[in-house]
Amino acid sequence: MTTTPVPAATRTTLADVIRTNGADFADVPAIVGEGRTTTYGELSSRSDAVASGLVAAGLGVGDRVAYLARNATEYWELFFAAAKAGVVIVPLNFRLSAEEIGWILGDADPSAILVEDHLTSLVPAEWRGLRLVFSQEGDPSVPAGWQAYEQWAASQPGDDPRRDLGGDALASMMYSSGTTGRPKGVTTTVGGFLWAVDAFGALFDVSPASVSLVPTPYYHIAAGGWSLIALAAGGRIVQFTEVTPQNMLGQLVGFKATHVIMVPTVMQLFITSPEASAADYSSVEHVVYGGSPISETVMLGAQKTFGAQLSQSYGLTETVGVTTFLRPEDHVVGPDSKLRSAGRAVPGLEVAIFDPDTGAECATGEVGEVVTRGPGVTTAYWRNPEATAAAFWPGGWFRTGDAGYMDAEGYVFLKDRIKDLLMSGGENIYPAEVENAIMAHPAVQEVAVIGVPSERWGETPLAVVVPKAGQTVDGDELIAFTRERLAHYKCPTAVQVIHQLPRNPSGKVLKRELRAPHWAGHDRSIG
Question: Which intervals hold domain AMP-binding enzyme C-terminal (predicted)?
Fold first, then answer.
């Protein structure tokens, strides 16, 4: 087991972050790039107006407000408004289907929602609550029953309601796909966010001079968490509405980014593209990567291309994004290299390896389940006591579902997934959810979804299908079938038809046997 000291907390509420910086850095840009540029002073005053509007609309302390849109400055107005009004923000994945969005809205039960105009059709007609719509391309299209966000916000009194909470009060819920096919609301407390701001900001030297490039969507803890760290420090974030390698390169160079958050698939594009590899990266101080498997070649290629410090992070939404990290000084080649590890525990968190069946701590070098506890770890899944109970061992140890071992120096080496979670291009995909969708196909008798290696995405879903007697399964047709029911990134990229799934004596499908031929020669199958 490894543990390190907890950094001293410097704030008591999330609303304090924007109140303080709104006064201290009033004319300093907080958000630049795509979307609306805003200063700290403007962000503070706008969040006052939105907070007072939420209170006037009848939202009480602990109520939820949802956000369904691409990255936009409006998200941070709503985030800090929620903090000032004492309500919980629920960022939704805009890539989900209408059925998936509808289920989450039913579970989270928000009282208000802010939606980008081209996504309003994803909100069920029967949903009842305050409906606000905005556009990033001019005046929004406002359907019946909706209100234009700009006009609504402008009509509010603009007084900070100061209903903000601290400590164990909920601040955010992010929905993660569930092992049983339904998403789970991962709760993050105010204290958890504030701890992360202090701990991670110190690790990566984030300051008012920092310019952070955050290309992933805010519904990911990596983007939402890192952006909060940058904003809390008084730095600026470079925002992306749509991410392409070309515009990412342009924003990085144009805004002279000091901190860059990337998934390995994007890093690979940067080190292999002639245009990108020849760009001026002299401003870059730190590149933080994670989210999917990465090769040693890409690690070292990125180090050479950027000429900056390189850190790898491993974590989950349940741990505010980071559990362990591999420090810049660990990025060296040699007989004792730690490059194949996921690093050591973040200061303030405890990390250990437990036997997944007994909960006993494993010996050094013995493979078991990675577990963690500390101030950044979630305390519960929203309204899901069964999932919450299953996720923790006695003593408050959270079960990550990932298998690995720890060496004598406290470095964690990941080996496999106990929960079968796939990570494709930084997106979490649970096979059970995909399997449930495929089983609705009339020609499918059985299916097992596994992750197979992808040079671009790290891994992608493969559906191994057993057809019903007398039926045939066409791979392309089955993929199209799942695309009608799931977000496209969750759908299989290939289909393999077999006569029988391998099983153990108790009847459990042996997915390890299905994965083995695809992962031969890959010594690290998870990120």
Answer: 433-508
